[in-house]
Amino acid sequence: MSSESTFFPPYRRIALELRGEIEAGRYRVGQLIPTQQALVRRFQTSRATVQRALDVLRQDGYINSQQGRGSVVLDRNEMLRSQGAPPDLTSHVARAFRADRVTLDVFSLTTETLNWALTPTLNLIRDGELCPQHIAVRVLVPSPDLELPVHRRVDDAQDTRPLKRFQRLLRSSVVALKSSLESLSSDLGLVPEVSVEVRTVAIAPMQKLYVLNGTDVLTGFYRVVQRSVLVEGERMDIFDALGAKVSFFHHSTADGDASQGAQYVRQCLVFYDSLWSTVATPWELSE
């Protein structure tokens, strides 16, 4: 594991190590991972800590647990297809990672969709088909304690449980993104330089923004819906912001420096840098 992962709480360190073993092929699709009892012995920790680690792996789509059978490794590529990560985002990300030096600037509610879209590209790097030499990622997300207009209970706006559910999802998705990218350098030695910086800002973005290599921009609007979710064992209606299947608008500098696309890319970078360098705050992800 990376040196930074040592600052994560025990359950996250366990989840990171197991995820690395799954990605490396030690546990293959359809195979059972060790039992909770075996993991307790291996990591010399409590059963509750192991259960929390397995919860993280389930939320990130690595395993599925069944009563009396244990935890089975899932095909995340199949889940990627079934959950509908936008193909335009997936393809543009893959194209960007063909460069020797990759930069990716992100501003979104979470990094969940980006995690799915990155999966095929990370697999290509692990298989040696893509060989970037430098990856620099900047992530802007809303402050965890921000009072969001979404992730609210429809009939009781004072109920904080939906917001806490979102906060857990936000942290989990960012940790997964950060550790997946950093492992390319720290654990696998496939990319010489990888940096992932995460900052928070007291703004709720209602559209996703991705700037790829400073030359391409993808934007897509969240869709606010009312839907029923299970929160802490209770079924409730919430206002949610859906972003998994948004349609993206693509702008590029490819048509020339004076083109409308090139101007849009430049203005997005100016906007992003202005937030990053002023009101954004580094997020210490350790708990």
How would you explain this protein's 3D organization?
This protein has 287 residues and is an alpha+beta fold. It folds into 2 domains: 3-74, Arc Repressor Mutant, subunit A, CATH 1.10.10; 81-282, no CATH class. The protein is built from 8 helices and 12 strands. Helix 6 (112-126) links the parallel strand 3 (101-107) and strand 4. The radius of gyration is 19 Å and the shape is globular. The two termini are 17 Å apart. The relative contact order is 0.14.
How is this fold's topology laid out?
Blueprint: H1 10-23, H2 36-43, H3 47-59, E1 63-66, E2 70-73, H4 76-83, H5 87-96, E3 101-107, H6 112-126, E4 134-142, E5 152-153, H7 161-186, E6 193-201, E7 207-212, E8 216-221, E9 223-231, E10 234-242, E11 249-252, H8 260-277, E12 281-282
Parallel strand pairs: 3-4, 4-6
Antiparallel strand pairs: 1-2, 3-7, 5-10, 6-12, 7-8, 8-11, 9-10
Keywords: DNA-binding, Transcription, Transcription regulation
Protein name: GntR family transcriptional regulator
GO molecular function, one term: DNA-binding transcription factor activity
Instruction: Report the sheet with the most strands, covering strand number, pairing sense and barrel closure.
Output: 7 strands, mixed
Estimate the mean pLDDT confidence: 87
- Portion of residues within helices: 25-40%
- SSE succession: HHHEEHHEHEEHEEEEEEHE
Number of helices: 8
Query: Strand order, biggest sheet?
Result: 11-8-7-3-4-6-12
CA-atom Rg in angstroms: 19 Å
Q: How many separate structural domains?
A: 2
- List the uncertain runs: 1-7
Estimate what percentage of residues fall within beta strands: 15-25%
| Structure class | alpha+beta
Q: How many DSSP-defined strands?
A: 12
Ends distance: 17 Å
Shape: globular
